[in-house]
């Protein structure tokens, strides 16, 4: 092959464009096979979506080819006689990236964007471990990865050997056709079709850039001192629906993973998969048109209990140094409530435990605190399990509440209706699914996602069992239960930008005078203000004159109305949707929202500009409020066991890169320091870890043991006792406590911890050896 001249570099750029375009198109076909044809409403819809998709792929390929042109020119200088080698790095990069993004899209039915960069390395690994398992689609994807590389390499080799005018003609024609398709094919009314047409590589790049840019947007207007503070609302909208409570009622909040508005209520589109919840909605205060503030779980706790702004990556992500704020959790605790949070999975995911610690939570029950008598959800092929199924969660909760003093505020977060969507009793729920689906004329969507719908049937049965057990308790008549979804389940197709946020909201109590359905648009951010007014009115709980809420109380209109003014965050780093009364700004398009949250495209440049201005103003307000601690003028926070550091320690933490490590790497680093007898620095590293992962038991035990090794037993004891409180089902805690009391010559206390450990772990060789040591 002849050495290329400078005049022929353009030819290589064109070939690079064609090769990258071929890779993107092959992966588009892979995605089409992976998601199935049932997601297209018609042949015409499929044709238009695919045509727009091909155009987007070719434009994205051109941008990528230009992006790689400096590398291509560099390789031309380094290895001038091997032009095919110049192209391979770009092909390999695009193919691997496309494989990952298309695999994510097939599983989630939404493209991956800026949220990828906002999760910690540990959270990303957890998510990948949960969702990636080898199946036919993954196997096909690996084949497509190899096929796309081979095809692009063969095409390029042939073009390099025989480049003619036809390549110029083809390139110009393809580019022109792409422009024509983009210009003449109208925007899709369906959000799902819009997602299907997106080039996933360009979507990922553009949204990543937009997310970074949004996080660094300075305030350009004058913002009041505390921009989210509002006068306390005296009007109690909940109280008139209840009988009088002699004492403050127990509160039970149940956040259901993925429970969308389409599942629940007599007018729900997919009614039948939550039959108990359907019946409960008719006896409850029911808002069928409620909106979550985020499209993933990270937003439900701050919105539901604090009516808090989402920040750039979710309010909980600001921890452990949160701006002062108000939540129903800490307020009810201050007024005599015992507060508990139950979750069968990793409580550090999204920094949930850090946020709840800040509220002074009394009981934090998570994966590590479930007894061995409960069985985790079935693991995937890689051995990963998210945690305990809903049935175990509800059963453990019901058995545990008798040990907690009243009044109680209990919060439960379910898990089974999350990927990988597996139920403990597959045969039972497969038959139930078949019976429900038999009542639908169009069954394709249900059959394609039967595992998802089976998990909702399982959840609903568990909820029914829980209610039956609770109804037999003495304090049932003095209990209020709130049920809502954290967001709508993601893998199901989304026709509207609001689908991801549309969730039901139910407030039930045996003390309700009557059920009532409110069709007005509601939001999670209106729940806390409503309960604050309720408790102030009915039980005279003291409250400040101003509260930092982004919304007021829940609406009471029984016909559809929309009086919200609120931003919505689809993913972390993507605060780009705004709802203002019945007008929605989403994906840079304007819609009118009607009955049942149905939307219609709206062409009004003035209103669009107005909503953009309101969204930007909200972002500027929250930037000031969150970064400058101007959310609330009153001091808040009851952080438990937060470690503080001297200037010397902080400088060392920065210099050695502890902040950049994942939690596991931080622990291994601290352990290595301890083994080298650098005990103080080991405590610095482990303490920094615990400020961000307060339930990382091994790190807390390591700190305790370093004090023991230095003979500082009185300092070790409270650290290890806190580790046992947080992780009572972890054997190492009992070993460490037995040791500290033994070496400090408190043998009776050592024996108590050995006995308690053996009661939980009767086969433990280490604990048996420690008992023998005490008997010698």
How would you describe this protein?
This protein is of the alpha/beta class. It is built from 27 helices and 16 strands. The strands form 3 sheets. Strands 2, 3, 4, 5, 6, 7, 8, 9 and 10 form a 9-stranded mixed beta sheet that branches. A hairpin with a 5-residue loop joins strand 12 (565-569) and strand 13 (575-580). Helix 25 (731-743) runs parallel beside helix 27 (765-775). The longest helix has 27 residues, at 9-35. The protein is globular and about 90 Å long. The N and C termini lie far apart (85 Å). The model has no long low-confidence stretch (mean pLDDT 87).
- What is the SS-derived class? alpha/beta
Helical stretch count?
A: 27
Main sheet?
9 strands, mixed
Q: Could you report the average pLDDT, rounded to the nearest whole number?
A: 87
General shape: globular
How many individual β-strands? 16
Percent of residues in helices: 40-55%
Distance between the termini: 85 Å
Task: Give me a quick take on this structure.
With 776 residues, the protein is an alpha/beta fold. Strand 12 and strand 13 (575-580) form a beta hairpin. Helix 26 (747-760) runs antiparallel to helix 27 (765-775).
